[in-house]
TrEMBL record:
It catalyses: [(1->4)-alpha-D-glucosyl](n) + ADP-alpha-D-glucose = [(1->4)-alpha-D-glucosyl](n+1) + ADP + H(+). It comes from Kingdonia uniflora. It comes from the Eukaryota. One of its GO terms (biological process) is amylopectin biosynthetic process. The lineage of its organism: Eukaryota, Viridiplantae, Streptophyta, Embryophyta, Tracheophyta. Its main location: plastid. This is starch synthase. Belongs to the glycosyltransferase 1 family. Bacterial/plant glycogen synthase subfamily.
Length: 634
């Protein structure tokens, strides 16, 4: 067989191979079709398969694979077109791998053992699928109405999707529950995102980047337009180059282009120096600066002939786009453009936000509960008919403990205990804390009143009383608050040097190690539109302890109280939460959390694994945004 380098089809099914294949398989660089079904792989992937980069068809059915035994190298097989995993031991879970297999055409998941519903997020992964085998999957619940199969690309649109679904308990066909959305591979929605920053200031930059990536992954063109701040770190911008120059309001505006996380970004640099201030926000003339930017950006679209379908603006700094567009630019030939406006935080620039709400075609905020909490606000109330809550997500590639250079060993939910133990030791070592197995509470936050400063302080003392360790990474824009925390850090330095560390700065690499090394991440916000910290915590298998408000309420389900509410979302409880904005409130959640760590370690470890396996990526929210973008054009 060593000589057969160009074999096309190889059927090794039913042969009792036990996770090992002839090593000469590795020479078969041309192999297109491989059937290794009905062997005894017991969930192990023969390493010889990893060199078969040309493989288009792979049958792994009947081999006892678990969701995590599905090898990562499958995702590198960009040519893989059909893969069969029927009758393995996937235990009702869709392997994470599908998100990487966007181009897959045929997929066999029969006998999966899916017991509840097909995750709606699968629709994102399966946008090219034209054969889908799902028979004999023992569905007990509904096939999710929003499970959407996208057929992208004209060639595929004409083909029918063969979806084989049979319920074991109810023989009604569920075929009609599928909605099929036909999208052009690109250009249907050209989305221009407006965002004042590339990630330095809180979560907004993260959100714009990761949402744009998710929308782009669904096959649409996305361009981001930003001011070119002099204080911007351009080292993560690829192919940064001068693009053109144009003139507006007697000012020359230089346009630079580049790629950020695979997204195309235009940087506008007006030569009047409005963005040469050494800061992003916080200048006396911020309204003038961002007003100028919004106007200049619309002018740029017009002068360069860019005609997006959607302009998606975020918060007060890009609010003027909505009325400048409707009052002026709509009449200058950009007539098919629709404006979507997203509120990330109503605390800042409420007046501008109110005006943008009135002018935009659709408005959103970043969680369902926050949308309800602000619905009575006089600037929101008149616009409720076009106002929706769509949860933010996190980018699972950016936050990925399996692939993170800032933590000591890669881990997934399979080896979460081992991975987190190593990360905790590395964190203790780095911060000079006692290296011992104690419950560790992490806090990563801007230190502002919104984030529940008094509750944070209380929780630090409470954790120490319970013989735990605390690490706080935070910085305060307000110098008075910063100095309060500097004092607290000094006090703790003398009283609890081996168990508490406050790092009062912004440090993203360190945040990764804290997310990985902490047992709990505390988010006691007074209000929280969505919150990313609790989502990132779960991605790293840390258990969120949160106040029940806004997006925290929508994403964290208390182990003792929220079983039913979690189930309604197709989830299981994943953390601890409390109501009041006072010390007894925090104590109620924190005490239960720490007690579980001390007294029920197996249950705690299982909870970490479960939290890690929940999907808080953009898969689902990106589809909601797509629906919204489509609705704007109806
Ligand atoms: P907000 O946008 O209100 O600050 P979010 O929870 O939406 O709150 O986003 C906060 C983001 O900023 C998270 O990704 C968190 O990890 C990060 N972050 C906050 N403070 C720091 C810090 N001091 N160092 C590093 N990252 C931080």
């Amino acid at each position: 067989m060593g000589l057969l380098q160009k074999l096309k089809v190889l059927d090794l099914s039913n042969n009792g191979f036990q996770g090992i294949l002839p090593s000469s398989l590795g020479n078969l660089t041309e192999l297109i079709k491989l059937n290794v079904g009905f062997n005894r792989f017991n969930g192990r992937i023969p390493k010889e398969l990893s060199s078969l980069k040309k493989l288009e068809f792979l049958d792994l059915s009947n081999n006892c694979f678990s969701p995590f035994g599905v090898p990562l190298f499958l995702s590198e097989m960009v040519r893989l077109k059909e893969v069969y995993l029927s009758r393995n031991k996937l235990g009702g879970q869709i392997p994470e791998i599908w998100e990487k297999l966007g181009g897959i055409l045929g997929l066999g998941l029969s006998g999966l053992g899916l017991v509840e519903e097909i995750p709606s997020s699968m629709g994102v992964y399966l946008r090219n699928v034209c054969y889908l085998g799902l028979d004999n999957i023992e569905l007990e619940g509904e096939v999710h109405e929003e499970f959407t199969v996208y057929t992208a690309g004209e060639e595929l649109i004409s083909r029918t999707i063969d979806a084989y679904i049979r319920r074991s308990k109810d023989s009604r066909s569920t075929k009609n529950s599928f909605t099929t959305v036909d999208c052009q591979p690109s250009g249907l929605a050209r989305v221009a995102d407006w965002c004042p920053t590339l990630s330095q200031v809180g979560g907004l930059g993260d959100v714009v980047t990761s949402l744009s990536r998710a929308v782009q992954d669904l096959g649409h063109n996305v361009d981001i337009i930003l001011p070119k701040y002099d204080c911007m770190n351009l080292s993560n911008v690829k192919d940064f180059q001068f693009h053109r120059s144009y003139s507006w309001d007697r000012t020359e505006v230089k346009v630079w282009t580049g790629k950020v996380e695979g997204l195309s970004v235009y940087f506008l640099e007006p030569q009047n120096g409005l963005f040469w201030k050494g800061c992003i926000y916080g200048c006396k003339n911020d309204a003038e600066r961002f007003g100028f930017f919004c106007h200049a950006a619309l002018e740029f679209l017009l002068q360069s002939g860019l005609h997006p379908d959607i302009l998606h603006c975020h918060d007060w700094s890009s609010a003027p786009v909505s009325w400048l567009f409707k009052d002026h630019y709509m009449h200058y030939g950009l007539s098919k453009v629709r404006v979507v406006f997203t509120i990330h935080n109503l605390e800042f620039g409420a007046q501008l936000i109110g005006k943008a709400m009135a002018y935009s075609d659709k408005a959103t905020t970043v969680s369902h509960t926050y949308s309800k909490e602000v619905s009575k606000n006089p600037i929101i109330a008149p616009q409720l008919h076009k106002f929706h809550g769509i949860l933010n997500g996190i980018d699972p590639d950016i936050w990925d403990p399996y692939n993170d250079k800032f933590i000591p060993i890669p881990y997934s939910s399979e080896n979460v205990v081992e991975g987190k133990r190593a990360a905790k030791e590395a964190l203790q070592q780095r911060l000079g804390l006692k290296k011992s197995d104690l419950p560790l509470v992490g806090i990563i936050t801007r230190l502002t009143v919104q984030k529940g400063i008094h509750l944070i302080k209380h929780a630090i003392w409470r954790t120490l009383e319970r013989n735990g360790q605390v690490v706080l990474l935070g910085s305060a824009p307000d110098p008075r608050i910063q100095s309060e925390f500097v004092n607290l850090a000094n006090q703790l330095h003398s009283s609890h040097n081996d168990r508490a560390r406050l790092i009062l700065t912004y440090d993203e690499p360190l945040s990764h190690l804290i997310y990985a090394g902490a047992d709990f991440i505390l988010v006691p916000s007074i209000f929280e539109p969505c919150g990313l910290t609790q989502l990132t915590a779960m991605r790293f298998g840390s258990i969120p302890v949160v106040r029940k408000t806004g997006g925290l309420y929508d994403t964290v389900f208390d182990v003792d109280h929220d079983g039913g509410r979690a189930q309604e979302q197709g989830l299981e409880p994943n953390g601890f939460s409390f109501d009041g904005a006072d010390p007894p409130g925090v104590d109620y959640a924190l005490n239960r959390a720490i007690s579980m760590w001390y007294d029920e370690r197996d249950r705690f470890n299982f909870l970490c694994k479960r939290a890690m396996e929940q999907d808080w990526s953009w898969n689902r929210p990106a589809l909601d945004y797509m629906e919204l973008y489509h609705a704007c054009h109806k």
